[in-house]
Predict the 3D structure of the following.
Amino acid sequence: MTDNTSLPYIIALTHLYDGRHRLLRELLLRFPDPAEAWDRIVLPGKTDSWQRAQQELEFVDKHHIGTYYLHDCDYPERLAQCPDAPVLLYAKGNINFHNGHFVSVVGTRQATERGKIIARDLVLALAEQLRELTIVSGLAYGIDIAAHRAALEAGIPTIIIPAHGLDRIYPANHRSEAVRALENGGILTEYRSGSTPEKQHFVARNRIVAGLSECTIVVESPARGGSLITASMAFDYNRPVFAVPGRISDDASAGCNALIRDQRATLLQKPDDLIEEMMWVTAKRPVQTQLQGLDAQVDDDLAPEEQTLMKLLREAEDGMLVNDLTEETDMPYSEVITHLMMLEMKKRVKSFPGGKFMAI
């Protein structure tokens, strides 16, 4: 953590050089002592920046927020290797930057059910095969939150990279996931309190998502989108990028297919593809027992027949047809349909054309 004598100057410098990361880094290379660097500056706004730094110090102390300065030994090593890494990071939670493999999972906010399921299954499968794994993403709707939720479900750390300060959570609907992440992982940002989630902040925070991780996975992305910016940044940092392919007619997969076509990403069909490409050593973890316990807890409010159907649907990666469920359960067709309708009303399953159902 940053020492208290230097921290006011570092905060003031980041405020004064807001968004001009390379210029600030050049200044600190020339004058490694932040206090000396501050004294050498002749720029308008110094007084306002110093006052804002004092306010931020009060916020940091009051809320027990950790700070990481670029030139400190505990600054995340992978991120420090990036030429545009933030000079100062604010952290809340229980983050261990040395916790084995860091993988960022990103994708579109308008994710399909298929994409959400793929993101969840990928994280759960990786968590089962890798002894130490941390999932990094941005808490956004769609693929981001699906990845965070899967990490929480598997009991592995997850780090949230927001586009604002630590005095808020955006989107507010994901507050419960953010709070749970504080216990095993946390929230990491370059933005001071009072910073709002503006468009340019989302673009800038993507470099932290890419730079913090050993590799980046894009699960779903249209032809244009923020996840492609993250993938491009990871590619520029010489970090492996993986993309889940989709049908050529799927708009939600157009960006992933383009990454693969342009050889800017490796095609990812199953977790083993990533593990083999990264040459990681696998070690089974007792994740399944925990997941079974979670499933049992979640299904307490379901009828026995509904619990049976949910178990089968969770085990089927691509969903199941009603006829197949009838054969597997020995229940009459009409009874299976009735239970599936009830499960759909309870938002436990989703129906697809052709009589196929998938667990949510």
About this structure: The first strand starts at residue 66 and ends at 69. The chain has three domains: 7-94, 101-177+191-278, 302-359. The radius of gyration is 23 Å.
